Amino acid sequence: MTHTITVIRGDGIGPEIMAATLHVLDTMNLGLAYEEADAGMVAQEKHGELLPQATLDSIAKNRIALKSPLTTPVGEGFTSINVSLRKKFDLYANVRPAKSFPNTKSRFPDGVDLITIRENTEGLYIGDGQTVSEDGEIATSTSRITHKGAERVVRYAFELARKTGRKKVTIVHKANILKSTSGLFLKTAREIAAKYPDIEANEMIVDNTCMQLVMRPEQFDIIVTTNLFGDIISDLCAGLVGGLGLAPGANIGDDAAIFEAVHGSAPDIAGKGVANPCALLLAAGQMLDHLAMPAEANRLRKAIVDTLEAKDNLTPDLGGSGTTMSFAEAIARRL
Ligand code: NAI
Ligand code: MG
């Protein structure tokens, strides 16, 4: 079966890492077809808008997108394109694996293999009730958690545990202080956890979680949490395994899914051909899992690990002197 994927090459290093990623995918002969769509600054320049309707239509039709980083111009009136996409397609589960790889700058060369699942549509990120009093003395912002929103993301976490043979889900919260919002999230999570007796569930307060992650990351398997906590924790986890060049993310909804690198468009190295393509390649691996091609996804991940192991054409962020494309070619040779 041919899957058509919306491909967004994006801004900054985006086109470079996408070319590298598609080169590797093409080597695998997966029967994927690509539909190109624009978003970000490149779309602003070509079509006069950051997120053209044609791009939204393409994602709605194909239901799968592989997306490079986008630059959101700084200034009044620009909402983040990523936040817009998550809202538009109700992509409620942000799935961010963090796994130790060989020859990276990780302090835990083989101790980390966890997935953070961040609720992606609610919490403090709804953007409601953001006010600052006229005298500039008082600011407010509203957080909203719904039973439905908590339920679907926690269920996703437990289903993923079952599907991937993971054993434990840690529910991360601050219900001792944020009694209404974090309280509802925790209460709902407990209800769902009770329906999965085969998966161990535990609860941890978010500040302690940060300390535990740095001290003993090997105790974690899957973490599920609300939007803001998940945003911060998943970056912490990327740091545990050697940084942004190796951190992929999937935004999953019932009707569409968008796969991307966690990092941004890296304007400081754009156009130099030295960006590490691994984060987007690992996101492509998540996409293959989602397309029910787990053997192909594992084949891709193994080729990446083998290339890191051999220190073959690693990019400068990993201490090598390879280029984005020579690194990708080294990975492709191992497939
Ligand atoms: P960034 O992630 O682009 O860069 C941070 C640092 O990491 C830079 O030194 C960069 O060179 C390095 N880096 C990032 N990816 C790398 C890679 N693949 N290989 C080697 N080094 C890499 O974050 P920054 O500078 O805060 O943001 C730049 C732009 O990216 C902003 O316009 C921001 O809005 C956008 N952005 C977009 C995201 C998305 O589309 N998902 C996510 C985060 C930021
Ligand atoms: Mg973030």
From TrEMBL:
Q: Which UniProt keywords apply?
A: Oxidoreductase
Protein name as annotated: Isocitrate dehydrogenase
Q: Does the keyword Oxidoreductase apply?
A: yes
Q: Which residues form the Isopropylmalate dehydrogenase-like domain?
A: 4-331
Q: EC annotation?
A: 1.1.1.41
Molecular function as annotated in GO:
isocitrate dehydrogenase (NAD+) activity
Protein family? Belongs to the isocitrate and isopropylmalate dehydrogenases family.
Presence of keyword Oxidoreductase: yes
Cited SMART domains: Iso_dh (SM01329)
Root EC class: oxidoreductase
Upper taxonomic lineage = Bacteria, Pseudomonadati, Pseudomonadota, Gammaproteobacteria, Lysobacterales
Q: Cross-referenced NCBIfam families, in alphabetical order?
A: PRK08997.1 (NF006529)
Specify the domain of life of the species encoding this protein: Bacteria
